[in-house]
From TrEMBL:
Signal peptide: none annotated. It is an enzyme of class 4 (lyase). Residues 27-344 form the Tryptophan synthase beta chain-like PALP domain. It comes from the Bacteria. It comes from Thiohalobacter thiocyanaticus. This is Threonine synthase. Its cofactor is pyridoxal 5'-phosphate. It holds the Pfam family PALP.
Amino acid sequence: MPFRTRYTGLIDKYRDRLPVHDDTRIISLGEGNTPLIRLNNIPRVIGKEVDIYVKFEGLNPTGSFKDRGMTMAVTRAVEEGSKAIICASTGNTSAAAAAYAARAGITAFVLIPEGKIAMGKLAQAMMHGAVVLQIRGNFDAGMRLVKEVAEAAPVTIVNSINPYRLQGQKTAAFEIVEELGRAPDYHCLPVGNAGNITAHWIGYCEYSSGSGDHVTEACTFCKGHCSYAGGAIVGNRPKMIGYQAAGSAPFMRGAMVDDPDTVATAIRIGHPQSWDQAWKVREESGGWFDECTDEEILAAQKLLAQNEGVFCEPASAASLAGALRDVKNGKIPEGSSIVCTLTGNGLKDPDTAISQCRADGTMLTIDATLDAVRDAILKGMEGN
Ligand SMILES: *Cc1c(COP(=O)(O)O)cnc(C)c1O
């Protein structure tokens, strides 16, 4: 076997554990294989001994974990002869759908909530040539419409209700187990539709039940598309913790929320599509749900950027905000290993970042003279 170094995407890497055929034409942009970064400075800042990692999914080709699901969903849609895909989106799904549709040579229709989508995501959907339909309504309204349209028109839904999405997304758990040599004790994720927390649990379960073994009994989560059937547990599985934004927290309320609101637009979802599955994940894993305020989310985003050099989008920071709070209050004991998924890249939402930092004088406007620059440097050094 020649030594092969070229990484060609997660379907190629995990094809024996994914629903693809030998001759399937794979639509890939090299997604997956994202870095698991150990936090060196933040544990010191909070004064706790924890082994905490961030899985930086913002380094996927379109800047979010949605690419993991989209490579699978679009690959299967094309294989099944579909000429168009459709999704409702808070932004990242539309960016991924647009890019993978472009790659495949098919059409993407995306429904986004007018005025509530981060600028980078809108730019992506438009640039990749999707038909962008801004609706005067939120994500949940868009999702309802997409389901109705797909019944009447020859378009494939690529939201996470498409079971292939979760199949692609489960590979993030595979990567983590392979890198750490075991599953972490706790896995923290931001929760919107709750597809990703479900997908991670599928991945951990498959891995812990003997990697790659195909079994015939249908999985309760994915209607027979995965290889997990609750077989013997060989490896460990993490407690799954889902953090929601306080203004958009149906899992905390125990009921759907009709007017969700949060600065973390990617999780501004009041009617989660994977409602039942996520409750089951919580129960089976022994984890929990909790909520973070917008202030906590933005503070964690900045803490991470300024202490570790990692820039994630606001929704992603909910996982870290919640994890740090639960470490501080002892719900997550010291000595634990923790993985926080950073679902999307900070560059997606420059407006929120800039307006947050403007307030604390990070940017100065000075004269173009040596004196002015020298004074500014001296003053800046004092702060350290
Ligand atoms: C989609 C998304 C989420 C939410 O994931 P769900 O699977 O809907 O729970 C969180 N963060 C970012 C950045 C996203 O794009």
